[in-house]
Amino acid sequence: MVLLTLVREQDWELLGQLRDAGGGHGVIALIAEQSVVLGTRAVRAGARSVLPREVTAAVLRRTVEATFDGQAVLPADVVTALATGAHRVETSPGDAQPATALVAETARRGRDGC
User: Fold this and answer.
1) What domain of life is recorded for the organism (predicted)?
2) d(Cα 67, Cα 54) in Å, to the nearest integer?
């Protein structure tokens, strides 16, 4: 499990390196602000879960537990953008709430033949 704050371009490069290295790193990306663009970029670069840096300790703890269990925790608008291939108009940090997406669980089921 890796908790990675994405601020500088080097952080994004490290995320890509973790993805390319394989090994099933469960990366939780913390982004500076609630952003569909940054959230979808993080998932495409290899993050399993994405949260804004300002989340509460309780939300972070639930995200770590879910990610460790093979689930992905993403803001609902990021899931929508990934599913539709479209980016919505940016929202303010308080508008979007994290939602557990079963993207990683579905991938694991397919890999395990379930």
Assistant:
1) Bacteria
2) 18
pLDDT in tens, the chain (114 residues): 899 999 999 999 999 999 998 877 789 999 988 789 999 999 999 999 999 999 999 999 999 999 999 999 999 999 999 999 865 444 334 444 444 444 444 444 444 554
Domain that holds residue 29: 2-112
Which two structure tokens, joined as six digits, stand for 27?
């990366």
For residue 104, give the CATH number of its domain.
3.40.50.2300
d(CA 7, CA 12): 8
- Please give the span between the terminal C-alpha atoms of the chain, in angstroms, as a whole number: 24
pTM as predicted: 0.73
